[in-house]
C-alpha cells in the first residue's frame, strides 16, 4: 500500500462563452435581407408629411375640428356605462333585515370583546402571586 503526500491537482474548468454569444456574425445574404426589409429615413419623412397633409385637408373641410377625431357613439356608450355604474353604487342601500343584522352583529362583537377582556382579567388574578414567606425564592 502506497501513501502519497502530494495533493491532487485542481481541475481547471473553462467557463468562457463562445464569441457568438456576445457578437452576431451574419452572412452577406442575411445582411442584404436586413437592408431590404428596413425602412430608410427618407421614407419615414415622406410618410409623415403625407399624414400631416391628410390632417390639414381634414381641418380645411372642418375648420371647427382642431383636435383628434373620435367615434361619438363609442364615446357616449362608454360614458353612459360609467354613469350607470356610479348610479347603481350610489342608490344601493341594504334592506331592513340586512341593516338590523348589521346592528346586531356590532353589538355581539362588542359583547365578545368585553367577555374576552373579563377572562383576561380573571386569568391574571388566578396566576397572581403575592410576596411573602411562602412564595419567597429559595437559593440553594
Number of strands: 0
Q: What general form does the structure show?
A: flat
Tell me the β content: under 5%
Structural class: mainly alpha
Query: Which stretches are poorly predicted, pLDDT < 50 over at least 5 residues?
Result: none
Give the N-terminus to C-terminus distance in angstroms: 62 Å
Cα gyration radius (Å): 42 Å
Helicity range: 55-70%
Individual helix count: 5
Mean pLDDT over the full residue set: 83
Order of helices and strands: HHHHH
Largest sheet: none
Biased composition (Basic residues): 88-102, 122-140
Region (Disordered): 88-115, 121-140
Pfam family, one: DUF2011
Biased composition (Basic and acidic residues): 104-115
Structure, explained:
This is YNL050C-like protein. InterPro entries: C630.06c-like. It holds the Pfam family DUF2011. The protein has five helices and no strands. It has 140 residues and is mostly helical. The protein has a domain of 33 residues. The chain is flat. The two termini are 62 Å apart. The relative contact order is 0.03.
In short:
With 140 residues, this protein is mostly helical. The protein contains five helices and no strands.
Task: List its traits.
about 140 residues; mainly alpha; about 0% strand; flat
Amino acid at each position: 500500500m502506497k501513501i502519497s503526500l502530494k495533493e491532487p491537482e485542481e481541475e481547471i474548468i473553462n467557463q468562457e462563452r463562445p464569441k457568438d454569444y456576445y457578437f452576431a456574425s451574419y452572412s452577406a445574404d442575411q445582411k442584404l435581407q436586413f437592408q431590404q426589409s428596413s425602412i430608410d429615413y427618407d421614407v419615414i419623412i415622406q410618410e409623415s408629411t403625407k399624414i400631416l397633409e391628410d390632417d390639414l385637408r381634414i381641418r380645411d373641410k372642418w375648420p371647427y375640428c382642431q383636435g383628434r377625431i373620435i367615434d361619438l357613439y363609442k364615446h357616449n356608450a362608454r360614458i353612459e356605462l360609467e354613469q350607470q355604474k356610479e348610479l347603481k353604487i350610489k342608490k344601493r342601500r341594504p334592506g331592513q333585515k340586512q341593516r338590523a343584522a348589521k346592528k346586531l352583529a356590532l353589538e355581539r362583537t362588542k359583547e365578545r370583546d368585553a367577555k374576552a377582556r373579563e377572562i383576561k382579567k380573571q386569568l391574571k388574578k388566578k396566576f397572581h402571586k403575592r410576596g411573602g414567606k411562602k412564595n419567597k425564592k429559595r437559593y440553594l
